[in-house]
Design a protein that fits this description.
- With about 325 residues, the chain is α/β, with parallel strands linked by helices.
- The chain has a domain of about 230 residues: Spore Coat Polysaccharide Biosynthesis Protein SpsA, Chain A.
- It contains 14 helices and 9 strands.
- Strands 1, 2, 3, 4, 5, 6, 7, 8 and 9 form a 9-stranded mixed beta sheet that branches.
- Helix 1 packs parallel to helix 2, helix 3 crosses helix 14 and helix 5 crosses helix 10.
- The protein is globular and about 45 Å long.
- About 45% of the residues are buried.
- About 5% of the residues have low confidence.
């Protein structure tokens, strides 16, 4: 089994020595590592080449979470595509071995791993990672919808793997998409009869300590992505899962005696909810407000007319051609 690792980057020079070094030390070494850079201002491309990775560039204004990853997939040859983010680091040398292990079951189309918060992360961030990424191995199919609700499609491209043949069959990630491309590909896999696995043994160190403003912006983009992919609402609604997470967080804060964090928790929950609701209602907002509310303002300049969209159409046509042979 050949594994291609795809790393989208932007000003990632400070991360690459550690990240690529860890990948090259894996018990199952990648067949190739492709760095897809959005015209970084630092030495990302030179560092990636120096460390033995393949590189390609896209214009920063044309970056799209789905389309850019689709373009990268075309430049690789592995049987399995492993997607990571620049600020995630494998926790151990068996990460790739573990993230591809569930493919021993031919019905498994995609796998994601566990995120463990950095030691310096705050209480709320560590708690959120612990809730969303438990130590329990989870195998999910459409038959589990009543059990999981919208969580059935929970998936993360911080550390994920997907069979190349299934990826092509399903047309890759949706594009253009502002965020949540990982959730959408998982949903496509599951609703097409495949299984998706969460394997906590495939673990990485990764977390963010976002400000309230960034929490608002991120959740605005999540709301936008959900509205642009309304078909997913026929299965479940995200608000219910958001409410469950908020309730569990409050319970943990109380039980652990972290009462001083409750005001911050209230503020974060409010920022996330308001951001999400604005995102779901983005069509009512002028473009200048959408850009102001978004973590990806350039998305709104390119929406419906970027090179990413045209390339995604080509990619889908190629995928259909492959599936017809």
């Amino acid at each position: 089994m050949k594994v291609s690792v795809i790393l989208p980057t932007l000003n990632a020079e400070k991360y690459l020595v550690n990240l690529i070094g860890k990948l090259q030390e894996q018990t199952l070494r990648p067949h190739e590592i492709l760095v897809v850079d959005s015209r970084s201002d630092d030495g990302t491309l030179l560092m990636a080449k120096r460390l033995g990775a393949k590189v390609m560039s896209v214009e920063r204004k044309d970056f799209d979470h789905g389309g850019t990853r689709n373009l990268a997939a075309q430049k690789t040859t592995g049987d399995v595509l492993v997607y990571m983010t620049q600020d995630a680091v494998p926790q151990h040398d068996r990460f790739i071995e573990e993230i591809v292990a569930p493919f021993a079951d031919t019905k498994v189309a995609a796998v994601c791993g566990r995120q463990i918060a950095r030691a310096e992360s705050n209480v709320l961030e560590r708690m959120t990672r612990d809730i969303n990424y438990p130590e329990l191995y989870i195998h999910k199919t459409l038959a589990d919808l009543d059990r999981f609700g919208i969580k059935l499609f929970f998936f993360t491209n911080v550390c994920s793997a997907i069979r190349r043949d299934v990826f092509l069959q399903l047309g890759g990630f949706p594009a253009p998409i502002i965020l949540n491309e990982d959730m959408m590909i998982a949903a496509k896999c599951i609703t097409n009869g495949y299984a998706v696995v969460y394997n906590p043994r495939a673990s990485v160190i990764h977390s963010h300590d976002y400000s309230l403003k960034k929490q608002f912006k991120r959740n605005f983009d999540i709301g936008v992505s959900m509205r642009m992919n309304e078909w997913i609402f026929q299965y479940a609604r995200a608000e219910k899962e958001g409410g469950r997470l908020v309730s569990e967080q409050l319970g943990r804060l109380w039980k652990q005696g972290n009462w001083t964090w409750i005001p911050r928790w209230i503020a974060e929950a409010g920022a996330k909810y308001v951001g999400y609701r604005f995102g779901v209602s983005y069509k009512k907002l002028p473009v200048r407000i959408r850009r102001k509310f978004s973590m990806h303002p350039d998305f709104w300049l390119n929406y419906d007319k970027s090179q990413i969209v045209r390339e995604a159409v080509i990619f889908k046509a190629e995928a259909q051609s492959v599936s017809n042979h």
